[in-house]
Sequence to fold (110 residues):
Amino acid sequence: MDPYEIEDTSDWLGCPTELETCRHQLRMYENEFEELNLQLRQAREKIFTLVEMHAEAMNHRDEAVANLRERSGEAAKLRKKLYAAREHQREAERLRGIHNGLTPQPKPIT
Fold:
């Protein structure tokens, strides 16, 4: 037996031929390709869902910001009225004090 023929296993019983080995490898690649396509499709669906969720969240945020601005404007108006009412209340208390003699009358500026 020639020493170079020791590695030649093509005539051994049960060993696949080169063609069978190539077909097997091809089937493995096809299965892997199908699996990767499935994973890619699922990833795209998840990304699409995330994009939709993000758009919905942005809409909710915009609505909340608009609502906040509206309420902030209302609060500013109410604060203005409250400060005016407090100023009127202080002036009324000062005048009551002057009227009741508890507070000295201010000297007029001449």
Q: What stands out?
A: The chain has one domain: 15-100. The two ends are 136 Å apart (CA to CA).
